[in-house]
Amino acid sequence: MTDLLVERRDAVLTITFNRPDKHNAMTSAMYDRLAEACAAANRDPDLRAMVLTGAGGKAFVAGTDIAGFLDFDDGADGVRYERRITEVLDALEQVRVPTIAAIAGHCFGGGLALATACDLRVVTPGSLFGYPIARTLGNCLSVSTLAALTECLGTARTKALLLLARPMTAQEAVSNGFAVEMVEAARLADHTAELARQLSGHAPLTMWATKESLRRLRVQGLPDDTDIIRAVYGSEDFHSGVRNFLAKRPQSWTGH
Q1: Is pLDDT above 80 for 221?
Q2: Which of 74, 90, 100, 203 is most buried, by CB atoms within 10 Å?
């Protein structure tokens, strides 16, 4: 079974994260394929919109597959990982056509980062959003990922989401402006397809200019965060957090 499906229909490209038994958790190969799909989208002169969604109805993407973190030896592995994630998110954000995240169920960790990198988000009543890492793995986000989330939610809401490690509901996502619409799960695919058709009729250069100008405003002057990422991913807290999470054991944080 292909874990990332890419389908072109009319002027719309749909990318489906397809690991429903794992809540569509992202593997390294899935991130690579997503970046390739974004590059292909930019080579398609007739494309007018792109939709990202998750298979199975229980999750958009529940995060990065945590088993991959078992191979991390030190903070340098964390730096490489976060740099690669930033590259993929940048590729998604720089797709020249409008991108829509159609979200049913859980949208956590890397999934929330992917949704944030999209231009528009449509959610269902049961959708939940969050970065629970302060109580699960003990890792951190890159400055670029934080900047994108803060642009959508504001600094105070972003801090609450990460420090309290409590999920944001679909209603909160709409109220905060993170999601443009909330629809019933049974209508999500059709509603998103209609939204994509509407976008297909708008001026492509106007939409591209809007996306790209806002992206440039966000990324200008982002500080280097290598020292932060190296310290967190190189910590014993992170390594024991990964092991205990996968073994379903409680974690005691030490700050080391």
Answers
A1: yes
A2: 100
Q: Domain range spanning residue 63?
A: 4-185
66 located within any domain = yes
Supply angle C-alpha 90, 93, 98, rounded to 5. 165
Count: domains in the chain: 1
Is 96 a domain residue? Answer: yes
Q: Contact, 55 vs 18, CB < 8 A?
A: yes
In a domain? residue 191: no
Supply the pLDDT for residue 116.
98
Query: Do 36 and 81 meet the contact criterion of CB atoms below 8 Å apart?
Result: no
Amino acid at 117: A
In a domain, 202, yes or no: no
- Integer Cα distance of 179 and 76 in angstroms: 35
d(CA 144, CA 226): 12
CA 175 to chain centre: 20
What does the pLDDT read at residue 1?
A: 65
Question: Containing H/E element for 122?
Answer: strand 120-123
**Number of helices and strands in the chain (H, E):** 10, 10
Q: What CATH code is carried by the domain that includes residue 18?
A: 3.90.226.10
128 has which bridge partners? Answer: 106, 169
How large is the average pLDDT for residues 213-229?
Answer: 96
